[in-house]
């Protein structure tokens, strides 16, 4: 199985899964086709994620999730134009964004499962950490950071808001699967963590709880705001204002 085969499986799932469609949206979808990247399971950057200034010692390496791991497949699911444009309005998150955040993550989980099942059907061992019982978030730090994994797989770099900026923008969701199949890693077209961020300040101005400044994002302030949104719109929640501004929505030159 090659990366092109995995892309085809993912694209077909985007086209056919009912979880990517919302009643009342007509033919509109939550997500467009995903951007895929590949990292070697023994990439030294996975070890660096265990450092306190990265994710932390609780972060498990690919071989700790799957003892014969060879490859990590990471993907970025870009929100559709409908979702992005609706959330450009200032104020609280748009209904389309809240739908995308909750139903969209249900789709993301289903895509994780679909990819794992496809690998297993092909005779390989595979696991999606976010779907594993060992996955946990401890003091706002997880045992598997999808965004950091995406960085290692060459999908993009971080912004002031800590969103991942890809060539498809930053408005979307991230997922990954670890497999004991050897696939050539994709090239990381960058060398620093924030290389794609222009420090334009758009995310600072768009942040409702003022959690972002020139030094980065205060995760505690952001989380407290999301808790208030959840209390109002339960079971849905979200914000994404920092991800739906220009230029972070614009494609990164390649």
Relevant terms:
254 residues, 8 helices, alpha+beta, 4-stranded antiparallel beta sheet, two-stranded antiparallel ribbon, globular
Structural class: alpha+beta
| Cα-atom radius of gyration | 17 Å
Strand order of the largest sheet: 1-2-8-3
Any idea what the shape is? globular
Number of helices, counting only DSSP H or I runs of 4 residues or more: 8
Helix content: 25-40%
Instruction: Characterize the largest beta sheet: strand count, sense, and whether it forms a barrel.
Output: 4 strands, antiparallel
Poorly predicted runs of 5 or more residues: none
How many beta-strand segments?
Answer: 10
What string, H for helix and E for strand, traces the elements in order? Answer: HEHHEHHEEEHEEEHEEH
Kindly state the mean pLDDT as a whole number? 92
Could you tell me the strand content as a percent range?
5-15%
C-alpha end-to-end distance: 26 Å
What does this molecule look like?
This protein is of the alpha+beta class and 254 residues long. 33% of the residues lie in helices and 14% in strands. The protein has 8 helices and 10 strands. It has a 4-stranded antiparallel beta sheet, with helices on both faces. The protein has a two-stranded antiparallel sheet with strand order 4-5. A two-stranded antiparallel ribbon has the order 6-7. Helix 1 packs across helix 5. The longest helix is centred in the middle third of the chain and has 27 residues, at 95-121. It is globular.
Short description:
This protein has helices spanning 3-16, 44-48, 62-65, 81-86, 95-121, 146-152, 202-206, 219-233, and strands at 35-40, 71-78, 126-127, 137-138, 141-142, 157-158, 164-165, 172-179, 212-213, 216-217. With 254 residues, the chain is an alpha+beta fold. The strands form four sheets. The protein has a four-stranded antiparallel beta sheet, sandwiched between helices.
């Amino acid at each position: 199985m090659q990366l092109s085969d995995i892309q085809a499986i993912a694209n077909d799932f985007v086209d056919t899964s009912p979880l990517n469609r919302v009643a009342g949206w007509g033919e509109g979808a939550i997500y467009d086709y995903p951007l895929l990247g590949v990292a070697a399971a023994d990439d030294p950057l996975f070890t660096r994620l265990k450092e306190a200034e990265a994710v932390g010692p609780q972060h498990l390496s690919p071989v700790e999730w799957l003892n014969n791991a060879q490859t990590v497949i990471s993907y970025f699911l870009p929100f559709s134009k409908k979702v992005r444009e609706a959330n450009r309005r200032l104020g609280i998150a748009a209904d389309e964004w809240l739908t995308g955040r909750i139903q969209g993550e249900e789709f993301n989980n289903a895509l994780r499962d679909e990819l794992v099942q496809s690998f297993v059907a092909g005779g390989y061992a595979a696991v999606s950490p976010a779907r594993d019982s060992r996955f946990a978030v401890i003091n706002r730090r997880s045992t598997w950071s999808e965004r950091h994994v995406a960085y290692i797989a060459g999908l993009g770099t971080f912004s002031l808001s800590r969103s991942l900026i890809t060539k498809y923008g930053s408005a979307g969701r991230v997922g990954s699967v670890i497999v004991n199949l050897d696939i050539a890693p994709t090239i990381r077209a960058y060398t620093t963590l924030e290389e794609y961020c222009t420090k334009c300040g758009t995310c600072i101005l768009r942040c409702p709880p003022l959690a972002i400044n020139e030094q980065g994002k205060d995760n505690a302030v952001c989380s407290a705001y999301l808790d208030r949104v959840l209390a109002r719109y339960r079971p849905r929640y979200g914000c994404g204002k920092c991800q739906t501004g220009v230029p972070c929505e614009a494609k990164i030159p390649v």
